[in-house]
Amino acid sequence: MSHTTAAPHRSGEQDVDLTSSGLEHRIAEVSPLLNGNTTGVNGVHPNGLTNDLTNGTNGHTPKSGELDASKLTIELADPNARQVPDEATACSGTETICTDHMITCTWKVSSGWEAPALKPYGPLSLMPTASVLHYATECFEGLKCFRGFDGKLRLFRPNLNANRMLMSTLRISLPGFNPEELEKLIAKLVEVDGPKWLSKSRPGSFLYLRPAMIGTQPQLGVQAPKEALLFITASFMPRMDAPAGGMKLHTSPEDQVRAWVGGFGYAKVGANYGPSLLATNEARARGFGQILWLYGPNGECTEAGASNFFILWRAKETGKLQLVTAPLDDRLILDGVTRRSCVELARERLAGELEVVERKYTIDEVLEADKEGRIVEAFAAGTAFFICPVSLIHHRGVEVQIPMGKTGESGMYTAKIKGWLKDIMYGNEQHPWGPVVTDQ
Ligand SMILES: *Cc1c(COP(=O)(O)O)cnc(C)c1O
């Protein structure tokens, strides 16, 4: 696949929309891989995810140079070399414990994708001049695999992660690929490491999967990298969905924004996260869990740390219950798989009880709702934090206490949505969102 097809610069065609046309050019390049799909790139629009596709094949046979999971080479680690830690110690150290294997795949502009390789987990080798180390040509995904209460291994809507990864890579001029091939590679790693690292003796547990892509070309100079590396690891991650007393949020400092209209907040690119750590660290030092990122002069509520944010309140005008979350259309926030799943489940299963509203809303509206006693619940939603009840928002010296239900642990609707998702993830409910990966 060609890397960057320089679009012929037609005179008279103004540069007013260079960024979006640039992304359109990249999407046009990868679209032959995704035949038959008319909704953007395999359901991907430049602003993120759209359609939930079935897990079937899109009928595209990979050509030479395209990402091709069927070419995977396998070099197995010694299965007795490392022991699986118990859940208590797995996340107690300062290094993420990964499973026995990882998958890597290299790409060059001249020859495209090489055969992917499953091999023992270990360090990567990079030149100090590699593109990623200087120009942040990196993007990633995060999803989990689950050991069900029925003994089966499952993923959760992995097609959405694969689609989003493609959108992120294109945003930072990394090479395109068929997302279905990435999905197959993810499933393969789970198939190989699941039986040992997510043993049947531990139903109800999960591993965290981290596909990532970096620009590896060892040449300084601000340009699209001509070499790249895709890699996938599987690791332990602590459970973060039920902190004692709920998650406490601190609104972002007045002089900092996480993302902006025209930026890349909608893409899971590493460049979004490093700069957010300063505020997060400050908030942590004051006893808060995450930043509630506000945007613009009116303080629109966007995301909670690297999770989407939901608030359930009674509408000012009608008094009706509304589950409110920030919209996707201005490309400010990440189109979370968990967010999308909450929105879809609530619309489907709570239709008679509440209305789901994706709209801009400001911190002042939250403060007003609090004053008028209209706030019912709030939660953060993302793969890492899953569904995490929020108990407090601190904004410029004002504390908004959010009800945590009868139990003091979670509001009722938060718990309901979380329960439905859990049932799908751990196989208590057979659902198309939870595809089974067969153990080897
Ligand atoms: C990853 C992420 C989320 C959550 O997305 P999921 O697909 O639900 O894991 C939300 N916001 C940001 C900024 C993220 O990076």
TrEMBL record:
N6-(pyridoxal phosphate)lysine modification, residue list: K268
Protein name: Branched-chain-amino-acid aminotransferase
Cofactor or coenzyme needed: pyridoxal 5'-phosphate
Catalytic activity: L-isoleucine + 2-oxoglutarate = (S)-3-methyl-2-oxopentanoate + L-glutamate; L-leucine + 2-oxoglutarate = 4-methyl-2-oxopentanoate + L-glutamate; L-valine + 2-oxoglutarate = 3-methyl-2-oxobutanoate + L-glutamate
Positions with biased composition (Low complexity): 47-61
CDD domains registered for this protein in UniProt: BCAT_beta_family
UniProt-listed PROSITE patterns: AA_TRANSFER_CLASS_4
InterPro entries per UniProt: Aminotrans_IV, Aminotrans_IV_CS, Aminotransferase-like, B_amino_transII, BCAT-like_C, BCAT-like_N, BCAT_family
Keywords: Amino-acid biosynthesis, Aminotransferase, Branched-chain amino acid biosynthesis, Pyridoxal phosphate, Transferase
Top-level enzyme category: transferase
Matching Pfam families: Aminotran_4 (PF01063)
Family indicated by similarity: Belongs to the class-IV pyridoxal-phosphate-dependent aminotransferase family.
One annotated GO biological process: L-leucine biosynthetic process
Domain of life: Eukaryota
EC code: 2.6.1.42
Cellular component per GO, a single term: mitochondrion
UniProt-recorded Gene Ontology molecular function terms: branched-chain-amino-acid transaminase activity
Region annotated Disordered, chain positions: 33-66
